[in-house]
Amino acid sequence: MDLEKLDFGAPAAERDIDCGLDDYFVESDAFQRVTNGEKTILLGNRGSGKSAIFKVLASRERKKGTLVLELNPENYSYEMLASTMLKESDGAWAKHGAYASAWKYLIYVSIMKGITIEGRKLKTGSAAKIYNYLRDHHQGVADNPLSVLISYLKRIEGVKIGSYGANLRANELEKLYKLEEIQLLFPHLNELCAKRRVLVFIDELDRGWDSSEDAKAFVAGLFQASISINQQTSNIKVYISLRRELYDSIPELYEDAQKYRDIIETINWDEETINWDEPSLLSLITNRIKHSVPSLATYNNESCWNAIFEEVLRYRQSRSFNYMVDRTLYRPREIIQFCTEALQMSKQQSNFPIDYSVISQVEISYSEERTKDIAAEYRFPHPGLLSIFEVFRGKAYNFDRNELELLCLGMIMDEHHIDVNAKNWLKDQDYEYLIEILWRIGFLRAQAVGGVKAMRRSGSSYLGPHQVSQLNLRNIHRFHVHPMFRSFLAMKEQR
Ligand SMILES: Nc1ncnc2c1ncn2[C@@H]1O[C@H](COP(=O)(O)OP(=O)(O)O)[C@@H](O)[C@H]1O
Ligand SMILES: [Mg+2]
Questions:
Q1: What's the total number of domains in the chain?
Q2: Is the CB–ligand 1 distance for residue 291 below 6 Å?
Q3: pLDDT at 83 > cutoff 90
Q4: Is 399 found in the same domain as 353?
Q5: Phi and psi of 199, rounded to 5°?
Q6: Binding site membership of 44 for ligand 1 (Cβ less than 6 Å)
Q7: Is 30 in the pocket of ligand 1 (CB under 6 A)?
């Protein structure tokens, strides 16, 4: 076996696509629903595979001749939005609608540019009409998507707060909201798109996120724009991805949840399925093993994993795959990272197959990284989480309800060293609230009993939100800290 070649790929889809993602991609049901256009909004935690779906779909469609546009400016620069745009309260204008129009304008203009870009050869008919429009309105304008959007917003803002008479203002606004400038071009655009399908992907909206009024209006406006474009122009599909907790933090979106429900796909992973070869985190890893070590290509998933990792670990006789996947929140990036770090260590120490001594060594840094990442991931709704995690340091990781309530109450009552930012959102809350948050973000898991037990998908009898979506925590009597956090927090086995 050629171990030197063994490689688990890159932990972010943007780089992974050049390592072979299209080849070792796991085609989940979510992917199918996105591909056939049934779902156009992807929600998922960081590292769950949003970009992977977009990258693979984009690459496959390009090969078929589809025009694919990926609108992910390096950074959406929410700060710039906030500093250029007036506050809603100052301008007395509804930002949400203004952003929706500006997004539509930007997306349509980008498509027009994309579809007429090829060559300078003589354009006739629809292509000529669009070409002329672009020449007259967008020539020499910086090709930065954000600046197109901002300039349109500025036009709306100008009318809203400018010294127009009421009638004139309503009139001008209507023109801008209806995209009058480009409306006559829609039939031409439709004609061109009938010949060549167009897909637009908008990913990474969380980059530079600052939770400001403008950031929220920017995203909510995009949701609205995408729906409207997808309805209006049949051969254009606009796809958006967003991190789950950002979606939850934008009131404009969940107030409109009904409108979006049918087109939202939320990414969830299973560790392994009853049928070993169905899409799962196990196949996600074994596909990568087989891609880099072709001599294992004919192995089933189980024996492929066992060719690289010692099957049963000396720690509690756990199966190595279960042990590792149990230290993730079921996100592909986590298992890829854990496996990659283990592989590097095993190469360094010429210790193969990868066994418990290797896994437990890399677990120390892996656990630290993940704990800090999770705290950072939730820094907007719950700043200072790391200091709350630290309260658990050195303790036994199992808690019955009373102990946990007491500990959480202590944090609320300021008996521990908690970051001031965390104190702010904790004060005036009860311990149930804190338990709920710690469970939601994956830090705590709840022991499944009775009916709940039947809801679990696999593995441990302690469940997190990545395993069951709904759980009435008030009925739960025992909890434990998720294993991913334990090594870093030096938590002990039992009292
Ligand atoms: N269905 C899949 N099949 C194979 N690899 C995947 C799949 N989904 C995600 N990955 C890999 O997992 C890692 C994280 O996924 P990514 O799409 O970058 O996460 P996100 O964009 O949600 O933060 C990347 O290496 C990606 O290639
Ligand atoms: Mg991504």
A1: 3
A2: no
A3: no
A4: no
A5: -120, 135
A6: yes
A7: no
